[in-house]
Structures
1.
Amino acid sequence: MRFFPWGFWLLCVASAPARGDSGSKARSCAEVRQLYGAKGFSLSGVPQAEISGEHLQICPQGYTCSTSEMEENFANKSRSEFEAMMKEAGRSVRTTLTVQHKSFDSYFQDLLNKSEKALYDAFPSIYGELYTQNMKVLKDLYGELHCYYRGSNINLEEALDEFWTRLLERLFKLMNPQYHIIDEYLDCMVKHAEQHKPFREVPRDLKVKAT
Ligand SMILES: *[C@@H]1O[C@H](CO)[C@@H](O)[C@H](O)[C@H]1NC(C)=O
Ligand SMILES: *[C@@H]1O[C@H](CO)[C@@H](O)[C@H](O)[C@H]1NC(C)=O
């Protein structure tokens, strides 16, 4: 189905002026000729006075100032003007969205960066060496969070699980410095950690919040 915006109907109406009840004398097409010329079309072939409109395909049939060619020109003109308008409107919406996206994006990255920095700042005083030796675990997690936010194909739940696992391994080693802990032992410990919830509900809460 062809779609013509309402501007086209204005042209139709202009090209088919209402007839008085006498009806015998054909009305002048001066206004339509002027409008048609103003749209940049040649006036040759444009009626001086109304003609019968059976040939019209889009405008209402009846007495009219439009020929088939005029009707087609009006329709095309109307369509191209409408499309240009839509394009223009689309451009400003796109600009608005781009600006908002940019500001959200830098806000969010800023938050992520700030939380990372706050953590780095706070940990050394609380955990001292324990932290500095194991900073990589946190760095890795934030690296993953940044990638995830940028749309990399990262499974956030897995990244968080991985973080807690690495953290648990490190803490376990640190808390049992008198033992030499082999990897198989660590693996086994990690496997059974879930039921003991060494970090209580924190991993679950964090996962819910992050995702
Ligand atoms: C109006 O547009 C149609 C389709 O784009 C085209 O085929 C036709 O030639 C145009 N008519 C005029 C009179 O420019
Ligand atoms: C946040 O940190 C990342 C990586 O460290 C950096 O590329 C980005 O520019 C920072 N963004 C802001 C808003 O500080």
Note: Residues 106, 109-110, 113, 146 surround 2-acetamido-2-deoxy-beta-D-glucopyranose (ligand 2) (CB under 6 Å).
2.
Amino acid sequence: MRSFWFNKLSLVFGPRSPINWLILCLVSVFALIALLGSSSSNTFDSVTASVRPNTYSNFRRLKEQALNDYLELKTLGADRVNDFGLCGKERENYVPCYNVSANLLAGFKDGEEFDRHCEVSREQQHCLVRTPWDYKIPLTWPSGRDVIWSGNVKLSKDQFLSSGSMTKRLMLLEENQIAFHSEDGLIVDGVKDYSHQIAEMIGLGSDSEFREAGVHNVLDIGCGFGTFGARLLSLKLMAVCMAAYESTGSQVQLTLERGLPAIIGSFISKQLPFPSLSYDMVHCTQCGIFWDDKDGMFLIEVDRLLKPGGYFVVTSPRSRQQESSVGTKKGSTSIPFAEFTQKLCWNLLGEQEETFIWQKTSDAQCYVSSKQGIIPVCKGEDGQSYYRPLVQCISGTTSNRWIPIQNRSSFHELEVHGINPEDFSEDLDFWRSALRNYWSLLSPLIFSDHPKRPGDEDPNPPYNMVRNVMDMNAHYGGLNAALLEARKSVWVMNVVPVGEHNTLPLILDQGFAGILHNWCEPFPTYPRTYDVLHAKGLLSHLASERCSMVDLIFEMDRILRPEGWVIISDKLGPIERARSLVTQLRWEARVIDLQNGSNQRLLVCQKPLVTK
Ligand SMILES: *[C@@H]1O[C@H](CO)[C@@H](O)[C@H](O)[C@H]1NC(C)=O
Ligand SMILES: *[C@@H]1O[C@H](CO)[C@@H](O)[C@H](O)[C@H]1NC(C)=O
Ligand SMILES: *[C@@H]1O[C@H](CO)[C@@H](O)[C@H](O)[C@H]1NC(C)=O
């Protein structure tokens, strides 16, 4: 069995190593606890206790221990431990790599100054992104989808109007709360009708048939505040919102705050960090992109992202379409970029009111046939597209993943990814058991403010305490699969680090959210957007990439919500280094020895809510 559980659990705090005489028997430890209550007992360097699997006791006392160790560290090793300061108030919503004035200074122009340029804004000095003074822990799922705290996001006054586009309506409910339109929430609006309309246009009876028709994942570009995505999620589709960086009223920040999947990304000059043939549907409602700019390169990028037989849905008011179809033949038609979509072998399925739907061809030969051969097919593809320049050629036609979405089957999928079904199911078994253990590790953290008597069972954490999860080194997406199977109400951003085996196509083909990312660079999201960060083997991987663990830990602090958790699984060496770093960031941290004879350790941390 690959279960990593064990009967003995050792909790190690502080810089000092465990001392042998402290391996007291269980009875005396519990007797002491009972005697002294949760107040003192600071003389222990470590506690070793036999506990039942999945049960952790006495966490509150350990918390105090951690604080004491930390204070002691500060007074003793003044040189090694310098408390990192908070950044200025102007950086409360800071996203590195998107500094427009610095990009302009560096010579980027023609819109490229709004693109992601990590090389320009290299961080000189480390500081912790501060939490707004009026920040409040978000409501639990699903209430948090419909109502958020206004102090948690950056909005300008005029964005509180409820007059935006259908997907962009929001209103100030009370002084400090914002409510969103949603079907079963407070306010009814047209998003359900809209989703039905799209289903009908592609020949389905209703939007509940999307999944059967092969539509599993959707890239929602310029998603408003995620309302359409929320509808799709309720139909068991994965809809990821993607929008450009915005300094206020960010669609991505608000969508994530609601507990819906979102990522910063833009059609400017680079490919999105997804492999070709990634999505079953790309959707844009008034997303502000001039699709036929740059000789249609944005449409070619959409073609790259779409699976064969996938759909491109555009909704925008007539006036805008005419304006943006100047590039096509004058007066020919009111259909936007009609000529170009023909070159792309897209088939216009329908137009209704302001909505147009095209279907990408299932026939890879279509591109090379003489009639269409105006856009060449790309040569020498390797599938790794990490912010590469946009191209003028068609991708993916020679891939063995060229399978029409209408023909997908799970058996097919493992085969085309060259993965042995046995390895895959063994991996899932591993994650099932790992998840049970993680969940039991989080329980005492969640309930640490409610002291319980020794021997009491730890209650399970409520299923809806965590919502936005990031697996920083997702491999096959096994943690995501295990979470779904255990019916936790979470979604997972599965990150495949650049340089690791590229399993992102497999992750996306399972209908999960995923992205390629180089962890030597900042992640394209706003501060305080994830509840849990999980990283197995990432520290070791990064050591081989030779980038800074300090940068990584600061980045994790930035994107983690206050009172959010970090679970790092790695070898003892990197874990020890990480532990000493995170305590300097004021995180609570404990190292857990798996005690299965390996030098693997878990580091479980929680970021405190500090608003001063
Ligand atoms: C953006 O860049 C400018 C110019 O380099 C710099 O003065 C400013 O502090 C930067 N802003 C942030 C938030 O880092
Ligand atoms: C998809 O399925 C249809 C109908 O079953 C079949 O005719 C077609 O050949 C399949 N296409 C591919 C690429 O497998
Ligand atoms: C111990 O557990 C870790 C983490 O689950 C696992 O990677 C490792 O292979 C295990 N080692 C042994 C010797 O079983």
Note: The CA atoms of residues 64 and 352 lie 63 Å apart.
